[in-house]
Amino acid sequence: MASTLTDRLSRLVKTMRGQARITEDNVQEMMREVRMALLEADVALPVVRDFIARVKEKALGAEVVGSLSPGQALVGIVNKELAATMGEGVSDINLAAQPPAVILMAGLQGAGKTTTTAKLAKHLIEKRKKKVLTVSADVYRPAAIEQLKTVTRQAGAEWFPSTASDKPVDIANAALDHARRHYFDVLLVDTAGRLAIDEALMKEIADLHAAIKPVETLFVVDAMQGQDAINTARAFKEALPLTGIVLTKMDGDSRGGAALSVRQVTGAPIKFAGVSEKIDGLEVFDAERHAGRILGMGDIVALVEEVTKGVDMAAAQKLAEKVKSGDAFDLNDFLSQISQMKKMGGLSGLMDKLPTQMTAKAGQVDMDKAERDVRRMEGIICSMTPLERRKPDLIKATRKRRIAAGAGVHVQEVNRLLNQFEQMRDMMKKMKGGGMMKMMKRLGG
Ligand code: GDP
Q1: Is the CB of residue 232 less than 8 Å from the CB of residue 202?
Q2: Mutate which of 248, 270, 279, 352 for ligand 1 pocket (most atoms within 8 A of beta carbon)
Q3: What is the pLDDT of residues 396-426, one digit of tens each?
């Protein structure tokens, strides 16, 4: 492989010298960066190697057209290849079976199986209008059975009781029978996990699979697992014909490289991403968006959606227009941003979606603390006059003291808020300057 690539590289440089702009140097340089990005995002090393090799081949075979720079052309190729590796477009749950469609949940303990079972139940009820039954075959942990009962209730689905003294296969069969007789559309079967792969567990779930013949066998994996995800995925893939993957805890720090590893090892499509502990924290997985996240380009589409979801649309629209028209971003906007973030369930989810270069600094702040600070910040802004909020530059020492006293905080806190405001204003300016847009366009090419 290495020699072929080198051959191709030198051939390319020869044939393209003077006219095209992809050169051996910049291919190598770019590939080094891509490699770093993937490793940083915790993609498993063998997967990175494989991927780089594929991209190199594509890049060298590709014609560089129009006014694209070599870097742009390569980023475009990398992004497309990433998205293609993780699956084109989006894929939802397959329910094409004689009802009830059985869905088997597999994965390690703590991966998020039980939570995801309930999230899926809710998704199927709300989005697909299905009548859903859940059952737990986790006979090792009675608490897990109880947990499923609780979250199933929250999801508005029905729960089939099981006890630790039953056999998993018997539990599943009884639930299936119940689901048939009561005309359920879907039966979700939660299973036992272990902290690490073990053979007895794999055999048990394989037997369960053989008995209930699920239409979907979903492998639930924690995105934070990073490099280890590849081993877990391999073991489950050997035991079960997986039909889909759910990547949980995507709201964490991870850049989600596990997606690439798991997808490559199992060959199964990634169907959903878990994005919070809450029952509605499940999103249909979007490979293209996720490619951007892995490369550190930020998930602008998701950010925009998040900003407008369940939030004050009018305010969001006004803000968007302001940024576009170049009007000054003032403390009123800042306040409305802060309260919207609160509605969105905190700062951390949002920060996660911003491009790395924007959050390089922000990523290091303690998110819990940041969320606690939000209320104080509101207090501070509320003790400013309307004029001060519109023209924050007016706020000098005397005004700061008055504002601090009004909000019951130290002057330092007022200073900190003003600094944060300035940072956000800078960010807005950058976005308005089209830096981000240009970057996204480049990727689309
Ligand atoms: P199981 O052992 O595989 O059934 O895992 P659980 O469903 O009990 O989940 C383990 C822990 O992960 C729980 O504390 C869940 O709240 C949490 N969890 C599951 N999915 C997500 C997610 O998408 N985001 C976050 N932040 N936490 C999650």
Answers
A1: no
A2: 248
A3: 999 999 999 988 889 999 998 898 888 777 7
CA of 121 to the centre of ligand 1 (A): 15
**Same topology for domains 2-86 and 101-294, yes or no?**
no
CATH of domain 300-444: 1.10.260.30
What are residue 105's phi and psi, to 5 degrees?
-105, 125
Task: Check residue 369 and give its pLDDT.
Answer: 64
Annotated binding residue 114: yes
From the candidate CATH numbers 3.40.50.150, 2.40.128.120, 2.40.37.10, 1.20.120.140, the one assigned to the domain spanning 2-86: 1.20.120.140
As a whole number of angstroms, the distance between CA 47 and CA 223 comes to 16
The CATH number, out of the four listed (3.40.50.300, 3.40.1010.20, 3.30.2310.20, 3.40.50.2300), of the domain defined by the range 101-294: 3.40.50.300
Residues touching ligand 1 (Cβ under 6 Å) are: 107, 109-115, 193, 248-249, 251, 274-277, 281
Whether 134 has a pLDDT exceeding 90, the answer reads yes
Q: Is residue 193 annotated as involved in ligand binding?
A: yes
User: Which residue's C-alpha comes closest to atom 27 of ligand 1?
Assistant: 277
Q: Look at residue 144 in the predicted model and tell me its pLDDT.
A: 93
Cα-to-centroid distance, 415 and ligand 1 (Å): 38
The residue extents of the domains of the chain are 2-86, 101-294, 300-444
How far, in Å, is the centroid of ligand 1 from the Cα of 114?
A: 7
For residues 373-387, give the mean pLDDT. Answer: 84
User: How far, in Å, from the CA of 147 to the mean position of ligand 1?
Assistant: 11
Summarize pLDDT for 283-307 with one digit per residue, the tens: 999 887 787 777 664 433 344 334 4
Question: Is residue 378 within 8 Å of residue 421, measured between CB atoms?
Answer: no
User: 266: annotated binding-site residue?
Assistant: no
Identify the pLDDT of residue 363.
43
Q: How far apart are the first and last CA of the chain?
A: 28
- Beta strands (DSSP E) in 99-166 are 101-106, 132-136, 158-160
pLDDT tens digit sequence for 74-97: 666 777 788 888 876 567 888 988
